[in-house]
Amino acid sequence: MRVKHKPWAKDRLEEFPAIYIKNPEDFKGSWHEVFGNNNPIHIEIGSGKGQFISGMAKANPEINYIGIEMIESVLVSALDKAIEAEVPNLRLVARDAKMLEESFEKGEIAQIYLNFSDPWPKKRHTKRRLTNPSFLTIYERLLPKAGEIHFKTDNRSLFEYSLVAFSEYNMLLTFVSLDLHNSDYEGNIKTEYEEKFSAKGFPIYRLEAKFDRN
Ligand code: SAM
């Protein structure tokens, strides 16, 4: 993804401490205090410009959401959407998914969303894919036993890779669609990438998976 560098992004994010959590490590194990309730916490990893996570927060006030995006120049667009949405149940964090265990306790996250993750098509970059087993190990620690990962993408190769990765990790696939927008799945909230690629006629692939097979 080409990203326009915004040198002012960091300062702008820090102007909104009620939404942007500058030091997420400080809240490891106590995120419920950040939200002021015990509602479940769902995170989106690679939340980009934030349309999905803001939409989800607005649609589901009984769930707390955290958008995690490693590029501040991108996250600053998600900040604008969060301000506009005026929701108390949304926070934003600028971190690489590799570092998530420094900010969240075991089982602290109820659900993980991965939307239109970068496909990293070259074999030597496989480890950077957010559905690589090295990331699944992290997700498994963050989620409780019944916690789920919901993943959507326009990229067939990444989807196939992920189906295999999840299966080989012995996860249970509970939902698979090869054409989400023509399926009977209800309540879909579109991401920026989803709008762009579905407008070009690409099918959207979606799956739900969990570590607990019972
Ligand atoms: N989810 C958004 C959407 O569907 O419109 C953005 C998709 S964009 C292709 C992928 C985003 O994931 C980028 O903004 C990128 O910076 C972010 N990302 C990639 N790897 C990441 C990682 N390891 N940790 C956090 N964010 C990551």
What do these coordinates show?
Keywords: Methyltransferase, S-adenosyl-L-methionine, Transferase, tRNA processing. It holds the Pfam family Methyltransf_4. S-adenosyl-L-methionine binds at residues 44, 69, 96, 118. This protein has a single domain, classed as 3-Layer(aba) Sandwich (Rossmann fold), CATH 3.40.50.150. The mean pLDDT is 97. The protein has seven helices and seven strands, in the order ααβαβαββαβαβαβ. 30% of the residues lie in helices and 17% in strands. The protein is of the alpha/beta class. The termini are far apart. The chain has a seven-stranded mixed sheet with strand order 3-2-1-4-5-7-6, with helices on both faces. Bound molecules: S-adenosylmethionine (SAM). The site of S-adenosylmethionine (SAM) has 22 residues, from α7. S-adenosylmethionine (SAM) binds at residues 1, 45-48, 68-71, 74, 96-98, 115-118, 130, 191-194.
Distinct small molecules: S-adenosylmethionine
Strands, count: 7
Could you estimate the helical fraction of the residues in percent?
A: 25-40%
Quick check: average pLDDT? 97
Give the oligomer, counting copies of the same chain as homo and different chains as hetero: single chain
Strand order within the widest beta sheet: 3-2-1-4-5-7-6
Quote the distance from N terminus to C terminus.
Answer: 38 Å
Low-confidence stretches: none
Function: Catalyzes the formation of N(7)-methylguanine at position 46 (m7G46) in tRNA.
EC number: 2.1.1.33
Keywords: Methyltransferase, S-adenosyl-L-methionine, Transferase, tRNA processing
Family: Belongs to the class I-like SAM-binding methyltransferase superfamily. TrmB family.
